[in-house]
Design goal:
The protein has 182 residues and is α+β, with helices and mostly antiparallel strands. Helices cover 45% and strands 20% of the residues. Strands 1-2-3-5-4 form a five-stranded mixed beta barrel. Strand 2 and strand 3 form a beta hairpin. It starts with a helix and ends with a strand.
Length: 182
C-alpha cells in the first residue's frame, strides 16, 4: 500500500496524528540542523543548567514527546487497538522515551570535566621547596598537580623552609597552600 492509498483510507483521528507527526518531525529536524551549526536557543546542554536548575520541560523535549507519541499512537491504532487505548499506549511510549533520554543525558553529565585540577587534592601530597619559603611570607614549591609538575606559591606553618627540602601540603586556606616539613 502506498502513502496516497493509505491517506485515502485514514480517519480524522489518523489525519490528526499524521499532521502532528509531520509538524513535530519538521521542527525536530530544524532543531537538529540548528544544533549541528551551533544554534541552540533551548540550552538543553548548557554546562551548569543540569546541576542547578534542572528542568524536564523544554521545547526540545516537547517536540520529541509529540513526535514519538503521535507516531506510536498511529502505529498502535494501525495494528488494531481502539483510539483511546492507542492514545494511552502512544503517550506512555512518548513519556518513557523522554524519561530515558533525559536520564541518559543527566547521567552523562557526571562524566563532564572542565580540565581544571582541584587545589584541595594537594592536601597530604609531598613536594619540594623550589624557592625558599621565608617565615610569614610566600615561597614556591614544586609538586605534582593535575598530572604534571607545577611550581606553586606556598606558605610555611613552621618557620623558614630552605630550598630543596621536602614538604607536605598541610592545608589549603583561602587559596593559599600551607606546607610543613616532611
Amino acid at each position: 500500500m502506498n502513502f496516497t492509498n493509505y491517506l485515502s483510507t485514514c480517519s480524522g483521528f489518523e489525519y490528526t496524528l499524521i499532521f502532528i507527526a509531520i509538524f513535530s518531525g519538521i521542527i525536530f529536524l530544524a532543531m537538529f540542523v540548528a544544533n549541528l551549526f551551533g544554534i541552540n536557543s533551548d540550552h538543553d546542554t548548557d554546562g551548569d543548567s543540569l546541576d542547578h536548575n534542572f528542568t524536564w520541560f523544554t521545547y526540545t523535549n516537547l517536540v520529541k514527546l509529540l513526535l514519538v507519541t503521535s507516531l506510536s499512537t498511529l502505529q498502535f491504532h494501525n495494528i488494531g487497538f481502539s483510539q483511546g487505548i492507542s492514545l494511552l499506549l502512544g503517550t506512555i511510549c512518548g513519556v518513557l522515551t523522554i524519561v530515558v533520554l533525559v536520564l541518559t543525558m543527566y547521567g552523562m553529565r557526571k562524566f563532564r570535566q572542565d580540565g581544571t585540577p582541584d587545589i584541595n587534592t594537594l592536601i597530604g601530597r609531598v613536594g619540594t621547596v623550589y624557592l625558599k619559603i621565608p617565615e610569614n611570607s610566600k615561597g614556591k614549591i614544586k609538586i605534582d598537580f593535575g598530572g604534571s609538575v607545577k611550581i606553586l606559591d606556598a606558605i610555611s606553618n613552621c618557620g623558614t623552609i630552605e630550598t630543596g627540602r621536602s614538604v607536605t601540603v598541610y592545608e589549603i586556606n583561602d587559596g593559599n597552600i600551607i606546607v610543613t616539613y616532611q
